[in-house]
Amino acid sequence: MKKHNFFLRLVIILAVFVFWAAQRWIFDVTLSTPSLPNLCVGGTYQTLGNIVITESNLDDFTQAGTGHFLRLQVAGNFQLEPGVGTVSVNGTGDLTNVSITVSPTQIIVFYDANNAGTAPDILTISGIRVRAITSAGSGSLQMNAGTPIAGITMGATNLATFSSIMPPALTFDNGNDLDKIICEGQSVTFTATGAASYTFYINGTHVETNTTGTYTTTTLANNDVVSVTGTSGACSTTLVGSAYTVRTNPYVSLISNDSDNIICEGQSITFTAVSDGTSFAFYRGFTLLQSGPSNTYTITSPALADAGLYSVVALKNGCSTTSNVINLTVNALPNVGYQTTGMTLEYPNNETNPQPLRDGVNFGGTLDGNLTPSGVGTYSGAGVLGTSFYPNVAGVGSHLITYSYTASNGCTSSASITIQVYNASNPITNLTNLYCETDGVQPPAPLTLSPNLSVFTSTMTLVTYFQIGYFYIPVTATFTRSTPLKYTFVGTASTAISPTPPPTPMVEPMGGYSINTSLLPLNISVGIGARVEYICTGGDCGAFGTTLGGVYNITRSTSTRRKSNPNLAFTGIAPNQRFCATPASISLAATNTLPNSTVENIPANEGTYLISRTLNPLDFGVAPSAVINPTTKIFNPAALQGATISGTPVPNPINSSQTFYIKFNVNYKSNLLFSRDLNKKT
User: Fold this and answer.
1) FRET partner for 441 with CA separation of 20 to 30 A, picked from 299, 503, 564, 578?
2) Which among 224, 191, 247, 236 has a CA at the least distance from the CA of 42?
3) The pTM is what?
4) Percentage of residues of the chain with pLDDT beyond 70
């Protein structure tokens, strides 16, 4: 009985072993298990490699039958792409009618099996796509339902494995400009953090990849959008910035009104910005000179310190453009002056002789404080010819006379003086310019000395010149003669006037003024003038040292002379001298011997040459100018032919002796005549 039980137990054990062996070795498969490492959480689907199930021996895959299925479940934080994936078999095995369904969390494969195959079965699942959906970690595909397959343990065997990582925590500042409104060419730096490498794009076009996370550009255009993709391992994150507004810069060009921008001190120059800007800032170097809406900058009187590099910045809609640079050169002016030591600055308007503007010793133009030689520099102004001033040409008034000199650098400087030309009419009524030594008190009563009101008119407009920088500015004021008339007399000869003139103009005294000519020195011209009170009634009174309504005294001067009675001599021809009637130039001269034995020449304009056929004073007349030139005092005997002398024509030609008498009259006063008679026969 015991032996029988032993064999029974042995048979049972062998049966169990055979059954186990059949399960383990007869129905067995091998697996090809793909993996997808480092999937990015929240990233896109990635394609899984093929899952291949291969039976180890013929008919090992599963039992024959229909309606078999294999369900694979996603384990972990992963997701399958629905509807994507295929299944196939090798076609020579037992598996037929294979199909697949893919949902986000599982794969179901349907199949039938028979035992008609001639080769081991191979089932391949392809094209499955997986993504990580939440947190990082690992996961797999496991069979959790279906027809059992030897070698695959439900809920334990991994047919595929996955792992995931978190994507970069990318930050992006969209550039260092806060309002994203910039100007053309403005530099903008974009910064990203949180990744291992960074790829920057403008409007989707790649521009730079680096590991620093910064990208700087000066080429943004209007509405450009910058984005960045940060990558860490296989994961990346993309952030897109907002669009930039890029404003157009103004155009600008700097010009000046000087052709070569080389100027002299005091020479005005204007810089102009040619631009569509609305505001402008002008600079010399880095120094701001002017800022505002004006597109011009003027230096009215440049100094040497104004030389330098000039530019302008044009602004429009918050954008700016810097212009080209103009290099301004300012050359120094020569140091020019006008020295007037010993120079006459006041003349009557009937003075026809040229008056010197320089003498090379005491007065004239100067350079660096020294009188300039003849021919250096030029003189200009009313009545100026060369280096002479003609009062009669300039006319009555104040005249600005200018000396100018141009240096080798092309710069011209000048200095000016004022010469006064006054009305030649005697400023003192009843005063003559010449008295005889015995005239005594003049004028005879009831005449008196008083200001000549044709000279001292009721109103006068005076002009003076003020130097401002390098320019002389005329300044005028109007003066009205005081009523009643207030005046006095000034000058050396005023000491001979009675009653004694007051120091300042006053109303004429009772009895009026006269001059005792006996108190004047003999044969010396002495000055005398009338000073009349005026009131400033308009213009720049302050320029003349007074105020509106204030007193201003105007003086006009002349000269007078007490002359010795003449002691005449007449030279050039002798009494009874004979001449031929042929052209000749014979110089005549008249002299006066003063009481002190001094001999003075008598100017032609102080005497007259007379001629007659007889000694009768009534027959004498002024010698024709062709016979005796009144200016040069040249006598030409031949010019007598055909002339009318004492009312009788002279034969032409003279063919017989003719007798003529020549007389030289000195007319010191209208009522006193001295003469010297000479006879000549021809």
Assistant:
1) 503
2) 236
3) 0.52
4) 92
